[in-house]
UniProtKB/TrEMBL annotation:
<dbReference type="InterPro" id="IPR003836">
    <property type="entry name" value="Glucokinase"/>
</dbReference>
<dbReference type="GO" id="GO:0005524">
    <property type="term" value="F:ATP binding"/>
</dbReference>
<dbReference type="Pfam" id="PF02685">
    <property type="entry name" value="Glucokinase"/>
</dbReference>
<dbReference type="GO" id="GO:0006096">
    <property type="term" value="P:glycolytic process"/>
</dbReference>
<dbReference type="GO" id="GO:0004340">
    <property type="term" value="F:glucokinase activity"/>
</dbReference>
<keyword id="KW-0808">Transferase</keyword>
<dbReference type="InterPro" id="IPR043129">
    <property type="entry name" value="ATPase_NBD"/>
</dbReference>
<dbReference type="GO" id="GO:0005536">
    <property type="term" value="F:D-glucose binding"/>
</dbReference>
<keyword id="KW-0418">Kinase</keyword>
<protein>
    <submittedName>
        <fullName>Glk protein</fullName>
    </submittedName>
</protein>
């Protein structure tokens, strides 16, 4: 059977791992934690991973701690694979609600060691490459909304640009579009301080009558 990485390393993975451990080791189940995890007796089951992370952080349930450790290791291992794929030497940024809530666990501040970082760096002879990749946790939990807003803004600007170019092409004498040079740095003669010179082109898109 195939298990996708999302079923283990994503936020839902904590619940999946705990469910398996509770099934395999029923004698280790903390009944109060388990009840909080599955939800009320009457009503829909919640299977709330927050109940597991809370119990693991407080140290009242070893099974919960084991589940979170397995999750952190799987997360770190997959993050290491991603880092080797893209080589983000400027930084690997981790997002998501569970990630931001569990940042102290991932960094090792909660337990004194980081299962996440151990798995992240456990890549044999390419480990030195990963040691050059800083890992950041994005604490904002609205990254999906921000991404959607950025995408919508880019689409709007692209459509606006296309409309303007379409209107300009209908002119009797269509203007020639040129790319503005970016600001350039000019070194003063004699080794003086750098001067910033900005080159600008005047815009004149008036159509001829």
């Amino acid at each position: 059977a195939r298990v996708s990485v999302e079923r283990v390393a994503a936020g839902r993975g904590i619940a999946n791992i705990y469910e398996f451990l509770a099934w395999k080791y029923p004698e280790k189940v903390n009944k109060a934690v388990h009840r909080s995890f599955i939800g009320p007796i009457e009503g829909p089951r919640t299977f709330d991973p927050a109940a597991i992370t809370k119990a693991a952080t407080s140290g009242i349930c070893q099974l919960s701690k084991q589940a979170v450790d397995i999750w952190a290791g799987a997360y770190g291992s997959e993050a290491g694979v991603v880092a080797l794929t893209y080589m983000p030497f400027g930084g690997l940024y981790l997002t998501g609600g569970v990630t931001s809530k569990m940042k102290d666990w991932l960094s090792g501040k909660t337990t004194g060691h980081s299962t996440f970082l151990e798995a992240f760096l456990d890549k044999g002879r390419v480990t030195p490459m990963l040691m050059r990749v800083p890992v950041y946790v994005v604490t904002g939990e609205d990254m999906g909304e921000r991404g959607a807003m950025l995408k919508a803004t880019r689409i709007y600007l692209e459509q606006t640009k296309n409309r303007r170019m379409s209107q300009a092409s209908k002119c009797k004498a269509a203007p020639e579009f040129i790319v503005k040079p970016n600001p350039i740095s000019v070194i003063a003669p004699g080794g003086g301080q750098t001067e910033l010179t900005e080159i600008q082109e005047a815009e004149d898109l008036q159509a001829e009558d």
